[in-house]
């Protein structure tokens, strides 16, 4: 499993950034707060995967 992750890290990073970008664009283009909540949840997941927790997080996040 770890070998697969190391081998495909570039694909996984591109996929994660593409998903966050698409979700952010959707939230910006639609006026409903329901999709904004979904984007916030995705961002929290990406923050945890990137180890942006505790003091590593931005103060405005």
Protein model, in words:
With 61 residues, this protein is mainly alpha-helical. The chain has one domain (2-56). The chain contains 3 helices and no strands. Helix 2 (9-29) packs antiparallel against helix 3. It is elongated and about 40 Å long. The model has no long low-confidence stretch (mean pLDDT 75).
pLDDT average, as an integer?
Answer: 75
Oligomeric state, counting identical vs distinct chains: single chain
Largest sheet, strands/sense/barrel: none
Number of strands: 0
Kindly provide the radius of gyration, computed on alpha-carbon positions and rounded to a whole number of angstroms.
Answer: 14 Å
The fraction of residues in strands falls at: under 5%
Task: Supply the number of structural domains.
Answer: 1
Shape: elongated
- List the uncertain runs: none
H/E element order:
HHH
Give the end-to-end Cα distance, rounded to a whole number of Å: 32 Å
Q: Helix segment count?
A: 3
Portion of residues in helices?
A: over 70%
Class inferred from helices and paired strands: mainly alpha
Summarize the structure.
The chain has 61 residues and is mostly helical. It has helices at 2-7, 9-29, 33-49. The chain has one domain (2-56).
Which characteristics define this entry?
mainly alpha; 72% helix; 3 helices; single chain; 61 residues
Write the topology of this structure:
Elements: H1 2-7, H2 9-29, H3 33-49
């Amino acid at each position: 499993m770890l070998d697969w992750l190391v081998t495909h890290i570039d694909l996984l990073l591109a996929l994660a950034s593409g998903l966050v970008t698409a979700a952010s664009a959707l939230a910006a283009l639609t006026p409903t707060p329901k999709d904004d909540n979904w984007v916030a949840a995705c961002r929290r997941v990406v923050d945890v995967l990137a180890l942006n927790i505790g003091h590593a997080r931005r103060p405005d996040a």
